[in-house]
């Protein structure tokens, strides 16, 4: 008998769950239906870029799901009959029956109780709202004021993106607490400097009313603003509560250790809609937790159908990324319980790091390879693999050298990955503050990485290319992540060892993949800059 799995919501968690489940079941006695209210996969963490006028890559779900066997339904979910196990769509005009339901509808702005918000404020909660904001904000005159309400990640990123892209506007950031108060002192200091550099005025206080041309604070201050952007108070819609599913005070579904609803075990909840506990507290809404949730639920459903009990899901945080425009950012490294470590990464390095993480999240969710170029560049198949044909030709000219060099160099890098923090701990003067010690250790690791690159053979082979990328780009970031692993993250040592150990083993896999792409006529020589489409 065919088991019908219905997944509502195609965000980071829902889409990754659907694709993973399709790969695991391979259409064997499992039917998968994905219901979403939009025809595109939305990179929600980029919507502030869309509002500022940047062009984002489109991810049509029909293309993403092609060949997976997943049935796509573009519809609005109106209600869930948890007793009859049906999902009503399009205002009751249709219903879909399920055996297992994956609830992944995400979060949005609540029905705000602040007077004037609905009538006078814009948002970046979805592509339609972000595009409407973009169209109207570009019509403002130079010198006009824009008030961004909310000092969380979305508010900070929206304010800085608008200020950088449209320097003629006066951007105000209004927040109940000091923006970035959760960051380590070094992160707070860099954020404060970035806001000053972008001429963003910060107001701390609760917003009492939003008028067409102003924002009123509870202490009586009035901020003149030709346009207001509301980014505060993201909440989960009340659909689950209305459907009789047990939720908490924020409408997030209460789940057990396997991400199943405690009131309805046939319903799994993932992403922002789920409220798993982390160190005794409700988990933070984050793409960082949504993706592992989606993958885990797919594995759990497969194991359940096979008659096995899945292992409980564990949430571990690593960092918080805050972009401050396209060329600046703050990366706050955290303990597994999401409490901040003293270590932060700032500036252009952080901006590049977040861009890489964001692209990886999209690739991870959709199960496809991310195209080269940033989100504003038009992508063509010629840009899909960087120098793939050249790498393959170099490998075939020197069959053993690249693999052996790669294995040796990556193994050495893995050893340095653990040795460097301890080494610098011993030679750095103890009287230095903790943050200065962290920066010294990271700088020393980066210096060793660059020195290692300089002594490598010419990087015309696969081994040299991978080694150079590892030393210059990967190793410093890895050292940053392990600055305090002796004290805080001992439980993750085995995971880090496994990740390093698998790197040399990837060389033959990459070669085989390149050969297959070449045989299929899918490898192209890397185009020159003149051949690339304009931004």
Automatic annotation (TrEMBL):
Its cofactor is FAD. Residues 4-294 form the FAD/NAD(P)-binding domain. The keyword Oxidoreductase applies. The keyword S-adenosyl-L-methionine does not apply. Keywords: FAD, Flavoprotein, Oxidoreductase. It comes from the Bacteria. Belongs to the NADH dehydrogenase family. PANTHER family: 64 KDA MITOCHONDRIAL NADH DEHYDROGENASE (EUROFUNG), APOPTOSIS-INDUCING FACTOR 1. This is FAD/NAD(P)-binding domain-containing protein.
